[in-house]
User: Fold Pyruvate, phosphate dikinase from Mariprofundus ferrinatatus.
Amino acid sequence: MTNQQNKYVYSFTEGDGKARQLLGGKGANLCEMTQIGLNVPPGFTITTKACLTYLDQNNTLPDGLIQEVKDQMSALEKATGKGFGDAHNPLLVSVRSGSAMSMPGMMDTILNLGMNRETLQGEIEQTGDERFAYDAYRRFIQLFGKIALGIDDMHFDEPFEAIKKREGVKEDVGLSAENLKEIAALFLDVVHAQTGRAFPEDPYEQLELAIKAVFGSWSGKRAVDYRREFHITPDMANGTAVNVCTMVFGNRGNDCATGVAFTRNPGTGENVFYGEYLVNAQGEDVVAGIRTPKPIAQMETEMPEMYRQLEELRSKLETHYSEIQDFEFTIEKGILYCLQTRNGKMNTQAMVRTSVELVEEGLINKEQALLRIAPESLEQMLFPRLDPNIKVKPLATGLPASPGAACGHVVFDADRAVAQKKTSGKPLILLREETKPEDIHGFFVSEAILTSRGGKTSHAAVVARGMGKPCVAGAEGIEVDVMARRAHIGDVVIKEGDMITIDGTSGNVYLGEVATVEAEFSEELKTLLSWADERAHLKVMANADIPEDAERALKYGAMGIGLCRTERMFNAAERLPIVLEMIVSDTLEQRQDALDRLLPIQRQDFIELFKTMSPRPVTVRLLDPPIHEFLPSENQLIDDLIQLRHLKDTMRGSEVLTATLSLLSTKNGALQPIQQLADSSLVDEAIEKKEAILKKVRALFEVNPMLGHRGVRLGITFPEIYAMQIRAVLEAACACQKKGIEVHPEIMIPQVCTSEELRNIKVHVEAIRQQVEESEGIAPIFKFGSMMEVVRACMRAEQLAEEAEFFSFGTNDLTQATFSFSREDAENKFLPMYNEAGILQDNPFEVLDANGVGKLMELAVKWGRGVKPGMKIGICGEHGGHPASIRFCHSIGLTYVSCSGPRVPIARLAAAQAALLDS
Amino acid sequence: MTNQQNKYVYSFTEGDGKARQLLGGKGANLCEMTQIGLNVPPGFTITTKACLTYLDQNNTLPDGLIQEVKDQMSALEKATGKGFGDAHNPLLVSVRSGSAMSMPGMMDTILNLGMNRETLQGEIEQTGDERFAYDAYRRFIQLFGKIALGIDDMHFDEPFEAIKKREGVKEDVGLSAENLKEIAALFLDVVHAQTGRAFPEDPYEQLELAIKAVFGSWSGKRAVDYRREFHITPDMANGTAVNVCTMVFGNRGNDCATGVAFTRNPGTGENVFYGEYLVNAQGEDVVAGIRTPKPIAQMETEMPEMYRQLEELRSKLETHYSEIQDFEFTIEKGILYCLQTRNGKMNTQAMVRTSVELVEEGLINKEQALLRIAPESLEQMLFPRLDPNIKVKPLATGLPASPGAACGHVVFDADRAVAQKKTSGKPLILLREETKPEDIHGFFVSEAILTSRGGKTSHAAVVARGMGKPCVAGAEGIEVDVMARRAHIGDVVIKEGDMITIDGTSGNVYLGEVATVEAEFSEELKTLLSWADERAHLKVMANADIPEDAERALKYGAMGIGLCRTERMFNAAERLPIVLEMIVSDTLEQRQDALDRLLPIQRQDFIELFKTMSPRPVTVRLLDPPIHEFLPSENQLIDDLIQLRHLKDTMRGSEVLTATLSLLSTKNGALQPIQQLADSSLVDEAIEKKEAILKKVRALFEVNPMLGHRGVRLGITFPEIYAMQIRAVLEAACACQKKGIEVHPEIMIPQVCTSEELRNIKVHVEAIRQQVEESEGIAPIFKFGSMMEVVRACMRAEQLAEEAEFFSFGTNDLTQATFSFSREDAENKFLPMYNEAGILQDNPFEVLDANGVGKLMELAVKWGRGVKPGMKIGICGEHGGHPASIRFCHSIGLTYVSCSGPRVPIARLAAAQAALLDS
Assistant:
């Protein structure tokens, strides 16, 4: 025997089932199956180390390898009672590659190796089935010719098809033994012609050539390209093993069969035996679909003993692997062989159900159950989706901006959406070029949103995600003509009322109604997530701006609201005009007047939010976006003014007026209800208002709005705006407290870059707190904290921690500032190219950049907690719902993550996994 | 005696001259002067500690203080031979406040304390001068009444003026002894009427009240406001001392005199005695300007002994203080007293000259010489400035965008500027609403630039600073009408050719020619800066984009070019059209064709730069700004198109054409020379070109250009652009090397955020290096480095250091990203308010924010040098020329700073000071 150091070959009975790097995944698995007592056909594995040595030595097999192989073959001969090359009872083997990672592009399997003119006769002798033997022979010649000798399939297919044509048969099974004999002879000629020498007759020569071909394929172009494409590095898989296995046949009579099975139903997770089989058939017959396989249950009556053994195998597999198995078996002459097993691929529902049931059955523990499921996959269960069984061609494709699928009748503007919903009640899909805050009432009555412009951060996308409604954004092929109430997609015209279906998970848009499958927030999922919450260190909060969002978030298991964007509360038809008034006002008095009218509205919002979430915390972020975001665009206003002036010029009677009403209703939004435009003085008034807004839009213009006059900078410039919001929070808290409702509001300041800003705002908070406490007669309970979305805030975390009771990383903005990437610009312009060129592995706006942004966060956490040990520090923004990012948040010791409501379950599972993987 | 612990009063002979916090600046100075043997009138100082105790104890004098004062008064009586309250030979004293820092708003001096009805007679007896005595008496009553008793001056001024009127005298000196006697009596009545009690006769009561009044003034509103306004914290000055000093009089006869003097000429620094005096006069007479003082030299003949003593005093002062002194003296009856001395305030020329001469005279060493001068003040010597003796009212004021003053004839567009310069050769000032790259040829021929829009970072400001030309930007009162060739400022009209003067240091604009003083880069300054270079650790480089800039930078002592912005090289009339072609081209071929034409131009620029700077390093930054910055604005193009189309419609003959030529010449820039617009087909062509550019402008639109598609992101998207620039650098290097010229070019990549970007560019650099080496037959010498202007670059400094040979912090962009402030927006919108509200002490775009941006830089330096010890790391950008920022750069161990040429001397001095203060 060779010593361990230079041992290159392991029998299935001796190889370590865990040694995937050395034996490849397939080899290790065969060893494991053999060693736990499954009836695997005997065989052995040549190591990846042998492969690397072979390649290193300029395609020379390592010393001693052939001898080891010969020793193993002798052992196979002994075990099977057959002889390799034996003319009477020949041993046939399969040869296949197998690296540590499954890798398409590696070579295929060679079956029936060991056949030659002599052993062919032995096979006929043994089976008494000439057709079977010639069939096996011609298959071997082609596979070996192609794989080991590099002959193109074309050379074999041509004579094969010619004979089929001559014989008038369509399927291979129609060929007779004579035909196959003729084919085998032709194939041998092909090999001779293509390689310049005869087909190798010596089985050991066959075996050596096959082994070298497998080794060589590791450095072949296809495999190298694949590894580069999928970033497979040597530490993941290095070299390929070769598995040599005794052939077994399911097609040697009616006491033979072959099949594939799952230990449980992979579609539902139900604990029933699931699979199908064919009597007297080969594995490829099951796959090819020529004969219809029978459901596995039928075997119980057809082959009862075999079925009993299969059931035993099923149970043994689950017990050993603690996982649902997808396995292949062959029955040869009444003997059951297990050829392969692997973890069963299931849809998410089945994964969740089996996770819970495997725990209940004692096969796995709760930790294993939690680690079994990819958090991201839960999305399947949380949103309606297109029926996966239906295949339809999409009409257009945009960006998958908010997940879920929905069907509805197209409507082109928000006002008409509201009207139609009232009258018909039918499901609607709002289709617009892009949406604006003034369209918000249209969102409420629509099932889904579709836009032809804008990206994943467009208004439509962000609002739809917040509401949990499906959205496809920026479907560029669609041309929307609002005034004509129709859209064009190429030659297709969509009119108002036409039915369409959109899939916000894929970005596809379909004409007509496509069946959807409802979301299933199953009992098993609830159980699983309750286990997750027990293990997780991170709390999971939801981003929710209005009471409806909060209710939904609670259903998803949110432990509080981590981000309530108060400006979103302004986006309602009856509120926007007041907000506009506030912005356009030239004096503090005018502004204060508008704010006084907003106060009771916002207070009532908070009361409802706090009640809904009681006793959980609700983090309220004060006004953040630059105020020009509430205003129409300059171009829009100029257009409006041109049309209003034209209207005024041509105004002669109500006919003209009527003709322009629809125009005004869409352009004019909520500012100037169309009913009032009854005479020209009202048109004058509308012009005046538009002009005032236009003036303001120009005054507020910013070169880089992302880095502009926003967040706390607004709060300090216009203290009365923040004062109104602070008062609304504190009065709402008092109102709840007086009714015995436990509330934990947290006031959060956006865009902070220095502790002086926090001190400045705190002065107002304290003054208002005193006033409220006096007038309400009760001390409002609340916390005061800072967003960490400006780089400087991170650098000054120590100083900020002196002022703030909590921090919340706004990783959307922080990522923009850290990279100096404007998200809107980057995603449209150079980020795709950066991903493609491998300069950035991921889109940092989707996957938190641990190396840059994360490093900054880690420093800020360290510095902040250095001053305030155990400080509450969280993250809000889209990364808060992304599993890998959540793992990072766990690793730097954050207190919580906050994400959009529908992603809360995903985050809960990811948080648990982070804790489990860390411990 | 009280023990030291509770000692509140120090005689001038015992107080520590360094104990400014305890004794106040004035008190410590009086002690110091006394102890070095100057003849200071005897006196003592009550400590600031006594003041704080007084205020703490609710305005009660500390125990034992009065006794200490009395002991000191006894000592004064002994020293002077006079008695405090003595009816025959009375001792009079002055009482004045003095804290550690000079602080207007503290109380004035009380003179002649100790006078009452009795001692008045004693004064008359002693001096034989009734008028003198009554004059002293009435002064004392008023000063004491006002300062110690809080009576408004108005109550004294009214009767005083009434008597002057009655007597028909204009000046106080016209009043007789009788008049003054009457006034004194009236003043005593005023005090009685205002305070309800008689004027205190007891000198000790007077003294106690005066001390309490001084102490109280420390917590008075004026003083508190002043300290808040100027950020004077308790560690800078806490409490005020009280100085009690024997009165001496320069107005007791012709053997008396008073004067002020500088030990050297403060206007030039020349080592001559400089000052003036009056015989038989009081200090305030010198200041009041009623009598004309005589130059000090005249005393040599008028009072030779006194002059000899003064010369002795002058020499003693300089020797002791090692600094030019500004001192006050009084001669009483042939005895010279020194009343006060302080460091002389001088203009920069004088400071520089005296610094060098004091070293030559051995009075100070070079280190002291270097530390004497505020680096910023050198600006006075480096730019022409308005003659300080001329006072003119400015016509308008804008932002001081580039320092220096200049006069010239107004011209409103660049083309006309070039033409006029050619024909008349007269000095010009280019006045525009704002400037664009296509105006650059106008900059070259103008003395200065004036714009009515834009800030300190506008095109005009940045380019003018780079060229060292004065610029006033954003002078908002000016309305420019280019087509009519005139501008309005209120009612004033400025026509083309009118003379104006601008001062880029103050931002003022004047009508007509205002005399200016030339810059003086004196020999002394050269000497001083050579000493600075010996001490500094930091090297000082210049930002220079074109060979002319480089030559100027060399004169200022630049040790290399730290930043050559290659895109600035594109800004020339004959180059911009090629750049436009490159940008507008739709195919790689078109783009490459334009680049091929730019290559020889850019290579020639580099050859000249490298030659000029040889053997110093030249750091070349590859293309940085978003390419749309080279294009006209969308609105500009739309306007142009409207006018071109109108021209096409109305084109009937050459008259119309001529009428529109001027319009086109200003709007159309270099793209389409107006001479070619001879027929309508050429107009069509112009329209087509404009439309193509407009399309490109719209395609390139970015929401946040600061965070957009620029720098290395462009270099990776359009590798052919960077390839051209890299090739130009390397071929230029080879060209110089072949001629034996030593060159050290450094290729610098902007906007880097990840080391992958550097690796990507390095591949191109290496390929081009090989090609150039082959074709030129010589290996180009160069370095490869990275800008550090993206936050993530700092966080990834370790990884970047693996790829880069040097780093250069771009603190302009880094500050924007760290604060999330867009400079253009912030400086116009909220930064002034942030400064005012004390949220930010400084504008972080002018003063490097050490706490935030600086902390990030410090980490990046640590991380980068951890990988590459001793790595060359510098800073370019405007902070590189700012003294406090330079000090910070020194403190974190940077290798160099780079700033605009004219600031190089300032930076050199600041670098030396940083090193000296650190050692």
Summary: The first helix of chain B runs from residue 20 to 35. The radius of gyration of chain B is 35 Å. Chain B has five domains: 9-246, 257-346, 383-517, 536-626+707-918, 628-651+682-701. Residues 278 and 293 of chain B are 5 Å apart (CA to CA).
